């Protein structure tokens, strides 16, 4: 995998070298108050809901027009009470005192990110990631300017869409927290370099950047420009990555590093983010499985480490069912809300309802059971083989209990307990790239 992966990075860097400017227009230093970036997959659902005159026979072309609306809220978001912290001491009032307290247990699997987000007034991603940079000694090791770091993290947080029920900055913070838990696992912690940790945390924090709240099939069928730009392949993940690169460059956070290192960082972050494309899971999983079968993973080898970090980020991204029921249930409701919201739009504009998105035929329980059976259990089963620790056992324990709970709900609702959503069975077949993004 090693030499192959390197050459893949290089190819991708060449192929995509112009994509940052095609996807994300980097803002000039002075232009902070103007539109941050040129073009966004911003989808303002209020437009769909409130303008009844554009209803009825709206075709994909009209939806496309709506989708290409600039994110006009963007500039105003700076006035909506998200302040740019002016010193490294962000946590200094009462709520923030409690948030600070929570950060002492940031490595606990029971960490309640929803509570943390409330205590930080919606700044969970900035607070948590800054804290983790500090905790892992990255600020010192890479001689990072804390003002630039904070500004970078604020931009990252701002580029998530807070109106998405699921794919928002809280999900990013949750994935970053999970990633931190995995980085602490003995096998990883003893072999990871500061560079690995740095890339892992940045990739986790940015992995869904600027997510439009609809999935790839939706972007393809509405002829969204991102689908064209990325040729219908890992459309969202490519956009998250290029958005992250845009913000990295814009923040100047690593301006003091060599160009070579910065390029290596950009491409390796890309490899991590692209691994979160759920439609590619089978390929990653069979590679992981055969490494484990052969027992040939050698974490002194940088390429093997990066492969493991890809798997770790994949786990972090879909770890919701491995959390406690209280947390897990909230995530399930949020993701379903986002799916159904997409389905409502698809119905309204006669676009054909995507799998899992039809509120008339789907239930949270069905979706969750299918998700767990076909995606989460296989992934975490292999992860536990790789890292057979208390954390892995805890995660598998919650997974089993949560699945049983959803089966209970399902039985109550339908009288039969064994329905598995057929949409997930199709995940194994050739239509994979057309399947909805689940995480
Ligand atoms: C940061 O803001 C606080 C008020 O929130 C102010 O007291 C302090 O002087 C500011 N620090 C700097 C360096 O501007
Ligand atoms: C992407 O998918 C659409 C719809 O299926 C198709 O019309 C288009 O040709 C595809 N583009 C590429 C580059 O494959
Ligand atoms: Zn995600």
UniProtKB/TrEMBL annotation:
Pathway: Purine metabolism; 3',5'-cyclic AMP degradation; AMP from 3',5'-cyclic AMP: step 1/1. Zn(2+) 1 binds at residues 171, 207-208, 317. Its cofactor is a divalent metal cation. One of its GO terms (biological process) is signal transduction. Binds 2 divalent metal cations per subunit. Site 1 may preferentially bind zinc ions, while site 2 has a preference for magnesium and/or manganese ions. Residues 91-413 form the PDEase domain. Keywords: cAMP, Hydrolase, Metal-binding. Zn(2+) 2 binds at residue 208. The active site is at 167 (proton donor). Belongs to the cyclic nucleotide phosphodiesterase family. PDE7 subfamily. This is Phosphodiesterase.
């Amino acid at each position: 995998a090693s030499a192959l992966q390197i050459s893949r990075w290089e190819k991708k860097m060449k192929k995509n070298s112009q994509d940052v400017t095609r996807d994300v227009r980097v803002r000039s230093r002075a232009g902070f108050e103007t539109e941050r970036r040129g073009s966004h997959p911003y989808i303002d659902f209020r437009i769909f809901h409130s303008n009844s005159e554009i209803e009825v026979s709206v075709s994909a072309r009209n939806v496309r027009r709506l989708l290409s609306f600039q994110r006009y809220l963007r500039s105003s978001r700076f006035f909506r009470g998200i302040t740019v912290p002016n010193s490294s001491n962000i946590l200094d009032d009462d709520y923030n005192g409690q948030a600070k307290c929570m950060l002492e247990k940031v490595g606990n699997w029971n960490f309640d990110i929803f509570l943390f987000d409330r205590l930080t007034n919606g700044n969970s991603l900035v607070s948590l990631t800054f804290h983790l940079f500090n905790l892992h000694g990255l600020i010192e090791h890479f001689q990072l300017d804390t003002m630039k770091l904070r500004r970078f993290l604020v931009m990252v947080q701002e580029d998530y869409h807070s109106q998405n029920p699921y794919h928002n900055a809280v999900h990013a913070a949750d994935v970053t927290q999970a990633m931190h838990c995995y980085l602490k696992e003995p096998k990883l912690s003893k072999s990871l370099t500061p560079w690995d940790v740095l890339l892992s945390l940045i990739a986790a924090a940015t992995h869904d950047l600027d997510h439009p709240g609809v999935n790839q099939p939706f972007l393809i069928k509405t002829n969204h420009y991102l689908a064209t730009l990325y040729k219908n392949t890992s459309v969202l993940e490519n956009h998250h990555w290029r958005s992250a690169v845009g913000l990295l460059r814009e923040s100047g956070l690593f301006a003091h590093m060599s160009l070579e290192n910065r390029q290596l960082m950009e491409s390796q972050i890309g490899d991590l983010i692209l691994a979160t494309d759920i439609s590619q899971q089978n390929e990653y999983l069979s590679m992981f499985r055969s490494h484990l079968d052969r027992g040939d993973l050698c974490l002194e080898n940088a390429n093997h480490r990066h492969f493991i970090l890809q798997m770790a980020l994949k786990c972090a991204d879909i770890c919701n069912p491995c959390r406690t029921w209280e947390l897990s249930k909230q995530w399930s409701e949020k993701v379903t809300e986002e799916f159904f919201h997409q389905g409502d739009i698809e119905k309204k504009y006669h676009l054909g309802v995507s799998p899992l998105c039809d509120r008339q035929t789907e239930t949270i329980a069905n979706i969750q059971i299918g998700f767990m059976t076909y995606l989460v259990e296989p992934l975490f089963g292999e992860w536990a083989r790789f890292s057979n620790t208390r954390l892995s056992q805890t995660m598998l324990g919650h997974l089993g209990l949560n699945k049983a709970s959803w089966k209970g709900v399902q039985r109550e609702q339908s009288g039969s307990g064994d329905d598995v959503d057929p949409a997930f069975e199709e995940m194994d077949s050739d239509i994979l790239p057309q399947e909805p993004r689940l995480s």
